[in-house]
Amino acid sequence: MTHMTTLPQTLPTLATEDAERPLPDAPPDPVIEAFGLNVFYGDFHAVHDVNLSFGKNEITALIGPSGCGKSTVLRCLNRMNDLVPSARVEGEITYHGQNIYAKGVDPIAVRTHIGMVFQKPNPFPKSIYDNIAYGPRVIGMKVDDMDEVVEQALRSAALWDEVKDKLKQSAYGLSGGQQQRLCIARTIATKPDVILMDEPCSALDPIATSRIEDLMVGLRQDFTIIIVTHNMQQAARVSDRTAFFTARPDETTGNRTGLLVEYDLTSRIFTNPHDKRTEDYISGRFG
């Protein structure tokens, strides 16, 4: 699969000293990096000083209790928080070394390279076919054969055999698990480099969840995947690396601010974490 891996040439390149800032347990081939990430909603400091690096063709799981900022961090990675009027992002997030928050960067272009799959399936009120074709049409993607694009996206999402005879039917006629795989196919159709997933299985039954997990593992060959999940078993099953977040009360306001506690290979996070807060959370003793 061919990816568009560079943003428009208007993006500046990071200075050498910025690019060499160390990150904890960083993967050797990073695609996205966050440096000193702070996120505010008005006066509320939602995420405090996060440094993270996401490796190419890896699955990274963001875990932690509700309200710890993991979904906020995820939405920063393709500038979805731009859609929240009160949100303010400080620090840097780079994609292949280019700052996606630099002046003049088009957030829509960012989202073309870094796609998003949401918590609940959100198919468009269109046919299955038009759900897939919508993205390539909107971004003006050069397509020789849209039928081929649709079929390939559906095959990549392990959905083709189930829907190939009803492509003109409404996407709303699919089951919940099928709708979520359709949304993944819709994301794939624009040929992103990175796929963000915000609790993609939380609304699904165990069988549909298992199919999505198998799909993620297969997609890792072609994409970098970053997933927010509350399911510890899911994180252990599918991810290469895991970042554990928690929240602490802000000394001034009392609001809970999200913190990155630990980031490491998933095998180490779940068998030999360095921080007691991580151990308590994954063992169910987190208070």
What is the structure about, briefly put?
This protein has helices at residues 16-19, 70-76, 107-113, 128-138, 146-156, 160-163, 176-188, 206-219, 232-238, 266-271, 276-282; strands at residues 30-41, 44-55, 59-63, 87-95, 98-99, 114-117, 194-198, 224-228, 241-249, 256-265. With 287 residues, the chain is an alpha/beta fold. Mean pLDDT is 89; it is low at 1-23.
Helical/strand content category: alpha/beta
Q: Helix count?
A: 11
Strand order, main sheet: write it out: 6-7-8-3-9-10
Strand content: 25-35%
Considering DSSP H and I runs of 4 or more, what fraction of the residues is helical?
Answer: 25-40%
Shape summary: globular
Total beta strand runs: 10
Uncertain segments = 1-23
Query: Assembly state here?
Result: single chain
Radius of gyration: 19 Å
What this model shows, in words?
There is one protein chain. The chain is of the alpha/beta class and 287 residues long. Helix content is 32%, strand content 25%. The protein has helices at 16-19, 70-76, 107-113, 128-138, 146-156, 160-163, 176-188, 206-219, 232-238, 266-271, 276-282, and strands at residues 30-41, 44-55, 59-63, 87-95, 98-99, 114-117, 194-198, 224-228, 241-249, 256-265. It has a six-stranded mixed sheet, sandwiched between helices. Helix 4 (128-138) runs parallel beside helix 7 (176-188), helix 5 (146-156) packs across helix 7 and helix 7 packs parallel to helix 8. It is globular. The protein starts with 15 loop residues before the first helix and ends in a 5-residue tail after the last helix.
